[in-house]
Write a structure and sequence with these properties.
Shape: globular
Strand content: under 5%
Number of helices: 5
Helix content: 55-70%
Order of helices and strands: HHHHH
Radius of gyration: 14 Å
Structural class: mainly alpha
Distance between the termini: 26 Å
Amino acid sequence: MVGYMARLVAAGEPWSHASRHILGLRNGQPGARRWRQVWSDARLKGEAPATVSRLARQALGSTAATDADRRAGHAASTTPASASANAAACAVVNSSP
């Protein structure tokens, strides 16, 4: 799907025209809300689809790891799982020319 979105961008179309159709793919999975939030973040609309996909997967993975720790009885982190994904997204946006 990311390849298709890259072709859309090359043709002059915003990748968000395609991404809105994938927002329900992670429905019911741990981290799905954060995954949708990354794909829907207006600050990332100027980024390459591959970059946004990487950030969304990071957000999904960090939330899943936190949920696994909770199930295993480990102490929860004082930093929300989405904070690291937010920081990564902001770093990408702020590094843009």
